[in-house]
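To whoever is on call:

I kicked off a structure prediction for a single chain this morning and the downstream step that reads the tokens threw a length-mismatch warning. I double-checked the sequence; it's 64 residues and nothing unusual in it as far as I can see. Pasting both halves so you can look.
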Amino acid sequence: MKTEGEAQEKAIKEVKEKLKVVEEQGLKSLLGEGSSFVNGDELGYLDIGMLTILGRYKIYEEFF
């Protein structure tokens, strides 16, 4: 499926908004206050990958 113009811009904006929520609500709560991301202050693919794996361990610790 190809999208162009306004539809593509709208989709990009929605993805960025959802990633912002993930960053603020999920990742920062897993990292704790004062922690930074792998490449500085901005969320990156490596951060998402690492926290997807590490988040499972944190959940496992809390429930088992």
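Update from on-call: the warning came from a stale cache, not from the record. Cleared it. Sanity check on the structure: Residues 6-63 form one domain.
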